[in-house]
Amino acid sequence: MMKREVSLNRGPVAWMARHGIAPNLLMAFFILGGFMMSLMITKEFIPNFESDTVIVDIAYPGATPAEMEQAIILPIENEVTSIDGVKDVISIANQGSAKVVLEMVNGVDRQRVYQDVDQAVNRISTFPLETEKPMIRLASRTVDVATLAIFGDVSLLELKHLSEEIKDQLLTANQISSIDVRGTPNEEIHIEIKQANLQRYGLTLAEVANIIGKNAIEQSAGSVRTEGGEILVTLNDRRYWADEYEDIVLRHDASGILLQLSDVADIKEGFSDSNRSVTYNGKPAISLKIYRAEDQTPTTVVAAMYEKLDLIRDQLPPGIEIIVTDDDGETYQQRVGLLLKNAGIGLILVLILLSIFLEYRLAFWVTMGIPTAFLGALILLPLFDVTINMISMFAFIIALGIVVDDAIIAGENIYEHMQKGIPFIDAAIIGAREVSVPLAFAILTNIVAFLPLLALPNMMGKLFLAIPSVVICCFIISWLEALFILPAHLARLEKKSEGRIARVMNSIQKPADKRLHNFIQNTYKPLLKKCLQAPSMVLVIALVIAIVVLSYPISGRMGFSMFPRLEGEFVVAKVELAANAPFSEAKKVRQYLELKLREVTDPIEAEGTPLVISVAGDISDSSIEIEARLVPTEVRPVNANEVVGLWREAIGEIPGIRSLTFDAERGGGPSGGAGLTIELRGSNNDDSLALSEKLMAELATLSGVVDLASSFTDGKPQWEIELNAAGRSLGLDATSVSSQVRSALYGARALRQQRDTSEVTTLVRLPFEERMFASDVESLLIQTPAGGYVPLADIADFHKELSPSQIRRRDGNRIITITAEVEPRKMIPAVMSVLREDIFPQLREVYPDIHIDFRGRQADTSETVNSLMVYGALSLLLIYSLLAIPFKSYAQPMLVMAIIPFGAVGAVLGHLILGEDLSVMSIMGIVALAGVVVNDSLILVDYANKKVAEGLSVVDAITEAGVRRFRPIILTTLTTFGGLAPMVFETSRQAQFITPMAVSLGFGILFTTFVCLLVLPSFYMLLGQ
């Protein structure tokens, strides 16, 4: 007796249970500390993370894509490909600009790679003189919270200046720190001189540009020290506006007559040459993107924006409108509200389930473990660099039903001892100690099962880092609460409670408890004994069910994708014209697309239900995009996919276009992107082009494949000019001729300066009417060293060819990217299988030097699934090791882990029941199941082992274990599923991309419960025999 009393007073569990103050202080620390952290922690819509990418942007005005590739991209690639930590180098050459994107190896020092790239690019000395300074930056995900559209029937220049004024007014709000103006070309001052004037006065465009540059400066001239102090002297002849250039003197003669710039040139404000046109509801438009600082919530910034907009709208000129086209503050509130609603419903379901099957005071203290674990976890989240966002809140919902398992097991065991008449405080210590070891290892297996989610690669790992971080933190706090806080509270329960609440709760709990007891004794126990009489048959039946169910998705009959297909907030049509298509044709196609959209939506809206909020149009060179924003999904008369289907049918075939694609997922979540993306990479451009044409033809024959598009373009006509013998005889050289032609067509840059918030370039060039036709190039007047002028056609030969409008490269070779959609999406695996097994091998035989790879969504999916498989296998090995320690056996951990594959069976069945396709989120749920589902089997086997050690037979031991542990196993299952149920059955589009993980966890746990109670005992018996 003395030994028992001594043992009951030793150890941390006993000390905390007997110490009335310490457990309450620990609980108060978790609750109050978590509440304080909830006020301080950053809140955002989706996690903001750093991208492992370095971007090099460089401009070479007027250069063709081929020139950009040869003069800019190749030198950069040669310098950066050998940098340690660089995984991929992707380059894009456009007309006048190039971009090189360097993707880093996971885990590398981002700052070190950036510095190495910066040094490598800046030591290149072979760039052409006209090349602008390279812009090198670490890519970052911008956190915009709202977009405004400013539109009206006014000139683009007026709209630009008005947007700058609105931007300045918005920035006066303390909560708004950053705004970008989008949709306008760069401002320029154009000084246009006719060739006749140049010839008349013996001038060249470069000479005029040089004179302007010398006469439009602001420069310090030093200082003068006087008795009154120092006086600074500055020469200020800066010219900001077009009319300020008129009096610049180009030359003067001996008689004093001045030749001013206004005498020979037309001077006007304008924009850089750009085939760009942005409209909103059919009118010219400019957009403003509003960003938040890292410590701000979207709602705070958006609220400040709306407050300012009320004042701004009152001051707008007639005919100008301003509309909020994107509001992350509202989206944030909606999705947070949705998740909080689901969490609240889940919490109520858990409390109801516990109150039905447990004594109500026990149920109360068990339920208190949930807010304690959640708030305690908030204290730890900053250590993982996790914020409050949609993903982390979903993680709390995942943990909702799981974290209470520890408290249920410990509390139910403690209460069982109390019912035997043991003093409450002793019962609390004994009950907690009995389950302390299995609980500790159950928590460890739970944590290990979620570790593979910490190792997800690239964007997926950064996006979903919050899920394992939050769940692991909750597990840790829930374990501390179950062993060190809950026993102390249960030890101080009053023996009898005769109040009104007690009578009401007892009237519910006692009949439920009696029914459960009768079910265990009269239904479950006899069924278990029958299973134990034929354990081999039970195992065979279980294995057959598992094989049949799992073979269904393996066979390809079940759709699989990166994310589930989500209905977007927008429907989008995008057309690619021929590279040299005139701008007027692009405008006609835009009008046609908008007309066909109205033909589709007007009849629907005529029935009284709105559908389209606004329509935005964007033309950029040969690309046309129409984006229609739809009303929220909850009030939409038809879904976005139906709108796209009707729109596609109404548009039909458009003659002369390169491609027509649609998107019904924009704004719906991270599921956007082409259904299929295939990349062709090789050094032989002709072979790549031929292969792409054959592959496009093969894809067009496959059922369900639509919206085919290729990144290759025929390009624009290009004239290569070569100085001939006549030109050389006049003393001309290639550099001089090239400079004069460039000045005439593109313009000679006089200066670049900051004007207000815009950078403005002053260009000297020929007027448009002297450079609008091909014949104008041939008749350009070139000044000779002797001062005379000759037509360009007389001193140079012209070689005509096609220049690609864009050149894409990866790892040193040109690439062609082919994209397509597959309808329905569940057919994507079947289409990929045909490509991988039939079409690709045939093409590789003909073109062995061309690499054919899946990219985009398929590559990301493959990389993520491979990571989950590898780290999932490692986690299983670690779980096995953790189980082998308490069991002191090599075989029994295999027994406990035998339940894991049945979790995958339950997950697949759940998706089939709900009519959902599998996704990477589903696989993440299945991997996480591995630790959760072993908890019940661990508790069951541990109890059976103790009974065998006490002398019971294997059959009697496992039978008693099943009967004794039935209640906690069923309770943990019901509470886990109850906590997840609101998300499992959530129909809102706003949560659809994360529900597959809840489906996998919920149905996996539900199915494995039956396996644990019936199949596992049979396996245990066979192992015992």
Provide a short characterization of the protein structure.
The protein has 1025 residues and is α+β, with helices and mostly antiparallel strands. The chain is built from 34 helices and 32 strands. It has 7 domains: 91 residues, Multidrug efflux transporter AcrB pore domain (Alpha-Beta Plaits, 2-Layer Sandwich), CATH 3.30.70; 64 residues, 2-Layer Sandwich (Multidrug efflux transporter AcrB TolC docking domain, DN and DC subdomains), CATH 3.30.2090; 136 residues, Multidrug efflux transporter AcrB transmembrane fold (Up-down Bundle), CATH 1.20.1640; 202 residues, Multidrug efflux transporter AcrB transmembrane domain (Multidrug efflux transporter AcrB transmembrane fold, Up-down Bundle), CATH 1.20.1640.10; 101 residues, Alpha-Beta Plaits; 92 residues, Multidrug efflux transporter AcrB pore domain (Alpha-Beta Plaits, 2-Layer Sandwich); 88 residues, Multidrug efflux transporter AcrB TolC docking domain, DN and DC subdomains, CATH 3.30.2090.
